[in-house]
Amino acid sequence: MADARVMVVGAGLAGSECAWQLAQRGVEVELVEQKPLRRTPAQQHDFFAELVCSNSFRGAALSNAVGLLKEEMRRAGSLVMQAGEAARVPAGGAFAVDRVRFGAEVTERLRAHRNITVVAREVESIPDVDVPVVLATGPLTGDALAADLAATIGQSHLAYYDAIAPVVTAESIDWGVVFRASRYGKGDDAAYGNCPLDEAQYHAFVKAVLDAEKTTPRDFEDVRYFEGCLPLEVMAERGPLTLAYGPMKPVGLVDPRTGEQPFAVVQLRQENLAATAYNLVGFQTRMKWPEQRRVLRMIPGLEHAEFERFGSVHRNTFVRAPEVLDRDLALRSRPGVYLAGQITGVEGYVESAACGLILGARLGEGLRGKMPPPPPPTTALGALLTHLQTPREDFQPSNVVWAHFPPLEGRKIRKKRLRREKMAERALRDLGGWLAQVGVSAPQPSEPSFASG
Ligand SMILES: Cc1cc2nc3c(=O)[nH]c(=O)nc-3n(C[C@H](O)[C@H](O)[C@H](O)COP(=O)(O)OP(=O)(O)OC[C@H]3O[C@@H](n4cnc5c(N)ncnc54)[C@H](O)[C@@H]3O)c2cc1C
């Protein structure tokens, strides 16, 4: 294929994978990366696909959503997974890598590819070129490019910090305690669960939040929060009743069992269409994960809560994907410019690379003829897109989680592990057809395992 060309900006997890997928399909790729001229404050090396913090790709087992995602990527011929295997180090149930070996492997493979030209340059505005452009500049996209992107999509559609509230599974909530109601009876009652707290429980909870261990912000994270989405602990520090007048305000909510308004309430909002998960409204937090598990389980009705996602607040440049991106991950306001990776609103090394894979495979095929469909929603790859394409007021980045998959059809399987195994089997079955559509003819399954991890 001679004249199909694409410019990919950023050789991180997403850009490297995207460039590889395009190049493997015969597309000529100009891969523009600011390193070694400039690094983001989190980077320490000059190779591509740098893992800036942990060296883990998280769980390896297929009963884990990110384990399934990795298996799907392997089958789709992912460069990140090939390099990951080459650099893998023992890590129990997790998939961890030697980061230097991993980065070196990705860099060598990309530099050696005959369809890829690497250019070292910092891009300061969305390139105005006559070929498709992929922006994969990540969570620490520089100020100039971010400003141009914000001007293109609208200032309110680009965020510089995330504010992620924890998500718990519906089946782990004690619905004998938690009552369904929306404030003042407005809207659909079924959409909210309310955990009632009496005065003593409220004050004990606030104290536990204040005493809990928090993650420390990085040097480059000047912690100036938006008033509209302050972390729980920052609100608690402002005064003993600040939370009771903020996200825990009880007004307009009557506990049907007592006929009274509780002293305070933690609201749970339905997270997905299937109502298998709920988020704790306004509970974005920097408490460490084990502390979140301990402190949030003090809330009546959440004593046995299982967390699909923990809360967080960090520096993170991302767009409001459901409004800004079309189903091909192109900017609605600027066709021909695509986004990939963390900047779209996915979260995590593996998810970012997976996002680059979906875009690269589809665009690569599309430039040769017809754009293939997105991966089926039953797959982990498809679940990432479901997250990016589900409109919601409080859109925030997310890892791949089971809540983004459609539930299994037929009789409900009670055992969580078995249910997830069935969902993984369904995903891998459905993935086959999509792989054929993006030109992967005979994917080599690795040895799928449901072992713990
Ligand atoms: C401090 C920090 C720690 C994190 N830790 C983890 C973790 O432990 N585990 C995890 O799963 N996820 C982690 N993440 C989240 C996320 O998964 C990673 O940031 C991931 O690398 C995102 O992949 P990406 O491809 O979207 O962006 P990146 O991997 O950041 O890649 C972006 C690339 O674009 C280049 N670039 C940026 N701007 C320009 C420009 N203007 N011109 C040219 N090139 C440019 C950068 O140099 C970089 O190579 C962390 C994020 C941050 C910020």
Describe this structure in words.
Helix 2 packs parallel to helix 11 and helix 3 packs across helix 4. It is built from 13 helices and 17 strands. A hairpin with a 6-residue loop joins strand 12 and strand 13. It is of the alpha+beta class. Helices cover 31% and strands 16% of the residues. A six-stranded mixed β-sheet has the order 6-2-1-7-17-16, with helices on one face. Strands 10-11-12-13-9-14 form a six-stranded antiparallel β-sheet. A three-stranded antiparallel β-sheet has the order 3-5-4. Flavin-adenine dinucleotide (FAD) binds next to helix 1, strand 2 and helix 11.
For this entry, give a set of tags:
453 residues; single chain; Elongation Factor Tu (Ef-tu), domain 3; globular; six-stranded mixed beta sheet; alpha+beta; 13 helices; six-stranded antiparallel beta sheet; FAD/NAD(P)-binding domain; 2 domains
Uncertain residue ranges: none
**Main sheet?**
6 strands, mixed
Q: What name does the CATH topology of the largest domain carry? A: FAD/NAD(P)-binding domain
Helix content: 25-40%
Q: Tally the helices.
A: 13
State the order of secondary-structure elements, H for helix, E for strand. EHEEHHEEHEEHEEEEHHHEEHEEHEEHHH
CATH homologous superfamily descriptor of the largest domain: FAD/NAD(P)-binding domain
Task: Assign the CATH class of the largest domain.
Answer: Alpha Beta
- Distance between the first and last residues' Cα: 42 Å
Q: Identify every distinct bound molecule in the structure, by name, code or SMILES.
A: flavin-adenine dinucleotide
Strand order of the largest sheet: 6-2-1-7-17-16
CATH architecture of the largest domain: 3-Layer(bba) Sandwich
- Identify the overall geometry: globular
